[in-house]
Amino acid sequence: MPSEIEKKIESLREQIREHDYKYYVLTEPTISDEEYDKLVKDLEKLEAEHPELITPDSPTQRVGKDLTKDFKPVKHKIPMLSLANTYNEEELYDFDRRIKEALPEGEKVEYIVEFKIDGASVSLNYVNGLLKTAATRGDGIVGEEITNNVRTIRTIPLRLKKANNLPYKLNDIEVRGEIFMNIKDFERLNEEREKNGEKLFANPRNSAAGTLKLQDPQVVAKRPLNNFMYMLISPGDELRSQQENLELLKKLGFKVNDNYRKCAGMDEVIKVCEEFEAMRDSLEYEIDGAVIKVNSIKQQNILGSIAKSPRWAVAFKFKAKQAFTTIKEIVWQVGRTGSVTPVAELEPVFLAGSTISRATLHNIDEIKRKDIREGDKVVIEKGGDVIPKIVAVVLSERNKESKPVEPPDVCPVCASPLFNPPDEVALYCENPECPAQIKRRFEHFSSRTAMDIEGLGEALIDLLVEKGLLKTYADIYHLKEKRDELINIERLGEKSVDNLLNAIEESKKKPFDKVLFALGIRYVGEGVAKKLAEHFRSIDELMKASEEELMEVYEIGESIAKSVKLFFGKKENLEIIKLLEKAGLNFKLEKPKESTPGDNFFSGKTFVLTGKLNNFTREDAKDKITALGGIITSSVSKNTDYVVAGEKAGSKLVKAKKLGVNVIDENELIKLFNNPSKE
Prior knowledge:
Elements: H1 4-25, H2 33-49, E1 73-75, E2 85-86, H3 89-102, E3 111-117, E4 120-127, E5 130-136, E6 142-144, H4 147-150, E7 172-180, H5 183-195, H6 204-212, H7 217-221, E8 226-233, H8 242-251, E9 261-263, H9 266-279, E10 287-294, H10 297-303, E11 313-317, E12 322-334, E13 339-351, E14 354-360, H11 364-370, E15 377-383, E16 387-393, E17 418-419, E18 427-429, H12 435-446, H13 458-466, H14 473-476, H15 483-487, H16 494-506, H17 512-518, H18 526-536, H19 539-544, H20 547-551, H21 558-568, H22 571-583, E19 606-610, H23 618-627, E20 631-632, E21 642-645, H24 651-659, E22 662-665, H25 666-674
Parallel strand pairs: 2-11, 19-20, 19-21, 21-22
Antiparallel strand pairs: 1-6, 3-9, 3-10, 4-5, 4-7, 7-8, 10-11, 12-13, 12-15, 13-14, 13-18, 15-16, 17-18
């Protein structure tokens, strides 16, 4: 039997949890701050006297004292897919048509329409009612654990509320939602940072996402993070509908946005989307659209998903917000590949949650097409509510003495002559030693999506390059030998230097595909780097590959293949790779822990997909083939074992017949999927 002390402690915890729920979630406090503080102090006193009775879900344990030095990977039970976007009524009706075509004939379809909150996605795992882990979305399959930081958010329960008569067990659930900052809270935070001489945050979404990745939970606890949860996953239960799930989340103690509507058809959905867009500017938080979901979970399961997004949900993006401002100056900036692009320096203006002072102009053709000049009054908007761009010039207010913009002849940084490749609009600085290129290459290398070296940002990179401490990527891994010199640099200090050196050391654990992406090969983004790493499995094999062999990799075309060969054909790049290998970076892909399926029809065979498939998306078919041990390539060669030809198959089918490669249709592929052991 629990002792009197245990009963008193648990009673205090329940009271505090209930008051937290009423204050933070319902915003309906029922006691004064003084009365609430007394409950907390009484609990803290009892727990201090009886530390053996402290539990992780106690309200006193929300804010930890330990730093999070490593955000561990967390595999999602079900992938956190991103939503496909729609922008007009026609695309919404098309979505509705696809839903009805994919469901059994005559089935009634209801939709739930919700706000699309502009925040950072989070996934929470509760086991037996207690918060176990919290994770970011990551790449949709694997996120990063941020449990210590999420625990500080008082709108998120550490223990689920007890709800009577629930028809489900809910023993091991995943709850998903968005973490954000209210606009006024964000503005206050920036005002405080400005007073303290700290760098201002760009917008509420970025500040929320950045806060979730801070190492110190005590700092996170001081930030005004908020949340709305919108998805409940319980593999052990047969949940019925999205509407019911939202009600369940509320009963369990989560903050749920009440601005959702159930619609009987797409005509109603469109009216609700218009209603939501009209509400947009009156809300306390940022939304950038509406989310439309099939209400029935059974129907959701029938519809399934494609590789990147669910078939049963779609986002409706609101029109971009616009504002007027003036172009102060047009400058030319140099990127890491040497591309020289124009940027408009603007009179600062607040737009869609952030202050805009710069906008990309893309290239000289874009400037000429819109006739953009210095001193012009312009209309700007955020494309997709993210990237500022100039939509139009207010010609009626143009200064008559303004002159058209002329592109530079030489690099604005190193004064080297600029090159304009045939069939390209872009201008390039071909000097690889150009300081601007060097700085931007380091920024890319150390960025979160590449080597993720926290602390090695733009300002520090500029400083270290100017001081001659960074010339090649390999120099990053020799900074530990210059610790004393770094400490003596103004505004660094011992603690920040040690944090930087630790982050550099930690980056050595990054997998081969991240290292490959970090090298900055033209046209090799994150996805391409992953495909190349998985196909060739080591830098040595990749460097040996011919253009034809590179193009055999699924979705790798001629431009990428040429760029990769050009990169590895340069002596200076090979020398840097050797130095990075010596420093301990990963240039090999570890063998998968799970062995590939045993011998079957697909094992070790190479397939090319061409034409339209009716029963699968291209990605679905690719995933099924690779799961059975097959290999997918983009181009047909004498090494191809089978070409899967769908409707309107073109040149690849012609080439396959010419080379005598086996050709099968979609029906034959389905039979092989159903019986892969058959030869």
